[in-house]
Specification:
There is one protein chain. The protein is α/β, with parallel strands linked by helices. It folds into three domains: about 280 residues, ANL, N-terminal domain (Rossmann fold, 3-Layer(aba) Sandwich), CATH 3.40.50.12780; about 160 residues, ANL, N-terminal domain (Rossmann fold, 3-Layer(aba) Sandwich); about 130 residues, 2-Layer Sandwich (GMP Synthetase, Chain A, domain 3), CATH 3.30.300. Helix content is about 30%, strand content about 25%. The strands form eight sheets. The chain has an eight-stranded mixed sheet with strand order 12-11-8-6-7-14-15-24, sandwiched between helices. A seven-stranded mixed sheet has the order 5-4-17-16-18-19-20, sandwiched between helices. The chain has a five-stranded antiparallel sheet with strand order 22-21-23-25-26, with no helix packed on it. A hairpin with a 3-residue loop joins strand 29 and strand 30. Helix 5 packs antiparallel against helix 6, helix 5 runs parallel beside helix 12 and helix 6 packs across helix 7. The radius of gyration is 24 Å and the shape is globular. Bound molecules: 5'-O-[(S)-ethoxy(hydroxy)phosphoryl]adenosine. 5'-O-[(S)-ethoxy(hydroxy)phosphoryl]adenosine (WTA) binds next to helix 12, strand 19, strand 20, strand 25 and strand 26. The site of 5'-O-[(S)-ethoxy(hydroxy)phosphoryl]adenosine (WTA) has 22 residues, from helix 12, strand 19, strand 20, strand 25 and strand 26.
Length: about 650
């Protein structure tokens, strides 16, 4: 293990990959002048992209940045996102085009329902019907609708139906616990919730509606639950409150005129982790968001009309919102949507899918690539991946070894890789290669896209041309978050105060090299990135201390071969509680219940006290060194230096990482 990071560094400094000449020849963007053109007049650049959309009323002002950090894009303009994603394609005679090739996890056993061909015609019909169902439940413009769903086409329909009537969706990743769901519904005062009876995971139905039922008594504002029957589990339904999706949609009026929305009206809220235990409700709006997701989806993936595009994220994360639903549908793309686990029933499931649908663009996360690396190349044998022409990565830094494996084994050495850096807050891709222009360096997200400006600040708050520091964005962009739901002050404090109210603090540490390439190093706040999923240390700590056996907890992120970072917890048990394997298991289970399985600590260490300064502050840096098995320097300033030995001993005994 110790040698691998060094190998990565070595690889990253030596290798460069110019775009293959064959790719450049067919690429939509192959002239680097596009960067200068956008930089010369960013507003004209973005307005050009906005014009590609269908507006009900034109905007009068491209950008109002007179009151930073409050940006207004395309003010005066009116449009509807669902009309842009559906109606205009159907009106252009493209209704028969496939929007999604949906593959069920149990596709081989499920008969025709296991592989559904979802056309634009079908999506528009279902969206209008479901929009009318929502209206019938009293949901209107500005109301919040929760969506807690598996990876099925109805999830996209639910989102688009909200957009059609101006309701604001709040999607909660289906792997979150009931209490995380409850918190997100509560703080957003959701009026209705769309869910499914269950989701299929590794062959077995995992109940979803049941989870919802457990928290409904605590959610007085939530009046209705619409339930898609995915697994036929026959979940309990309460008369008057719970509605069967299939029945309601079949009975609904098939016509719903799209609501004209202001460009700055909210489209959705999506909760993400921040530095405190309380998740942040990122608010995205309509005109600027759709403009930038459509533009970046087309440019970064060099989209062609006949591409078969597969973004393998879950719709519950921002990647799914922007690059499964809104970007691709705005562009009239044919996508693949796969319901289940990558290793079910076999570890070559993905390669079967790529072969079956002739996928040409694959967009996934480094953590998945590293799993495939671990499972080995043998699984690729016999699968024809020659349809692939472009690969994408997102969610965390991709280490050069994984990059090279992806390039060689999945991309056959011929596909450019776009390592796309962005965040829930940015809404759309910000730093990424353009595959027909940019020479890539494995491990670097390369350069800000045309129209985007990023910079690195050093310790003395100076912008630097080369070296390491803090990543910032120095100009507004159309898809930027507009606020935190219900917490406008926190929005300004978190992102727009460190360097003034017109410089966006990203929260990532990064390095800029002699070519101006950006290398993301990691987070500067207390956010841990596990398999590309953001979790805050405080969130996990408060879940742990809510267990009655825990007196105190400190949580850190440590590097992990498979998941990028892993969660390590240091616990002081309550007096009389036995710290052993049983308690470790119980605590992991407890965190799964409080937040979700993704937040379970990988390792837990126990001590009578945590390493603290005399003033009582937990020394996290020291905890990191302990977890890393590093030589510890002077610990005499600690209140109780002996706890360090005890913890270091446990780390050693467990074999460390
Ligand atoms: C990290 C996911 C390096 C980064 C779209 C960021 C990345 C956080 C990359 C946002 C990348 C995302 N290279 N790091 N290509 N993409 N990150 O909000 O730390 O779930 O701040 O959005 O993931 O995570 P989020």
């Amino acid at each position: 293990m110790a040698e691998e990071p060094e190998l990565d560094v070595l690889l990253s400094t030596e290798l460069t990959f110019p775009p293959p000449s064959g790719f450049v020849a067919g690429a939509g963007w192959s002239d680097p002048a596009v960067y200068e053109r956008a930089a010369a007049d960013p507003e004209a650049w973005w307005a050009g992209w906005a014009e590609e959309l269908e507006w009900i009323e034109p905007w009068h002002t491209v950008l109002d940045w007179s009151d930073p950090p409050h940006a207004k894009w395309f003010e005066g303009g009116k449009l509807n996102v669902s009309a842009n994603c559906l109606d205009r394609h159907v009106a252009a005679g493209r209704g028969g085009k496939v929007a999604f090739h949906w593959e069920a996890e149990d596709a081989d056993q499920a008969g025709p329902e296991g592989r559904r061909v979802i056309t634009y015609d079908w999506l528009l019909d279902q969206t209008q019907r479901f929009a009318n169902v929502l209206k019938g439940l009293g949901v209107g413009k500005g109301d919040v609708v929760g969506i807690f769903m598996p990876m099925i086409p109805e999830t996209a329909v639910a989102m688009l139906a909200c957009a059609r009537i101006g309701a604001v969706h709040n999607v909660v990743f289906g792997g979150f616990s009931a209490s995380s769901l409850k918190e997100r519904m509560e703080v957003s005062t959701a009026k209705a919730l769309v869910t499914a009876d269950a989701t299929l995971r590794r062959g077995a139905p995992m109940p979803m509606k049941e989870k919802v039922d457990g928290v409904l008594p605590d959610l007085p504002d939530l009046e209705h639950v619409v339930v898609v029957n995915r697994c036929g589990t026959g979940c309990a339904m309460l008369d008057g409150r719970d509605i069967d999706w299939q029945e309601a949609v079949a009975a609904a009026d098939p016509v719903c005129v799209p609501e004209p929305m202001d460009a700055e009206d909210p489209l959705y809220i999506l909760y993400t982790s921040g530095s405190t235990a309380k998740p942040k409700g990122i608010v995205h709006t309509t005109g600027g968001y759709l403009t930038q997701v459509a533009a970046t989806h087309r440019m970064v993936f060099d989209l062609k009309d006949d591409d078969v595009y597969w973004c393998a994220a879950d719709i519950g994360w921002v990647t799914g919102h922007s690059y499964i639903v809104y970007g691709p549908l705005a562009n009239g793309t044919t996508s693949v949507m796969y319901e289940g686990a990558p290793d079910y029933p076999g570890k070559d499931r993905w390669w079967q899918i790529i072969e079956r649908y002739r996928v040409s663009i694959l967009y996934t996360a480094p953590t998945v690539i590293r799993s495939f690396m671990k499972w080995g190349e043998a699984l690729l044998a016999g699968h024809d991946l020659s349809s692939l022409r472009l690969l994408g990565s997102v969610g965390e830094p991709i280490n050069p070894r994984a990059w090279l494996w992806y390039h060689e084994h999945i991309g056959g050495g011929r596909c450019p890789i776009v390592d796309t850096w962005w965040q829930t807050e940015t809404g759309a891709i910000m730093i990424s290669p353009l595959p027909g222009i940019t020479t890539t360096k494995p491990g670097s997200a390369t350069l800000p896209l045309p129209g985007i400006k990023a910079a690195i600040m050093d310790e003395s708050d100076e912008m630097i041309e080369e070296g390491g520091g803090t990543l910032v964005l120095t100009t507004p962009w159309p898809a930027m978050a507009r606020t935190l739901y219900g917490e406008p002050e926190r929005y300004i404090e978190t992102y727009w105060s460190r360097y003034g109210n017109d410089v966006y603090l990203v929260g990532d540490a990064a390095r800029i090299d002699e070519d101006g390439y950006v290398w993301i190093v990691g987070r500067i706040d207390d956010v841990i990135n596990v398999s590309g999923h953001r979790l805050s240390t405080m969130e996990v700590e408060s879940a742990l201390v809510s267990n009655e056996g825990v007196a105190e907890a400190a949580v850190i992120g440590v590097p992990d071969d498979a998941t990028g970072q892993a969660i390590v917890a240091f616990i002081t048990p309550q007096d009389g509680v036995e710290a052993g394997d049983g308690f470790t298991i119980a605590l992991r289970e407890h965190v799964a219940e409080k937040i979700g399985k993704l937040a379970r600590p990988k390792r837990i260490y126990f001590a009578d006290d945590l390493p603290k300064t005399r003033s009582g502050k937990i020394m996290r840096r020291l905890l990191r060194d302990i977890a890393d098995g590093k030589e510890l320097g002077d610990v005499s300033t600690l209140r109780d230096p002996s706890v360090v030995d005890s913890l270091a001993g446990q780390v050693k005994a467990s074999g460390g990482r």
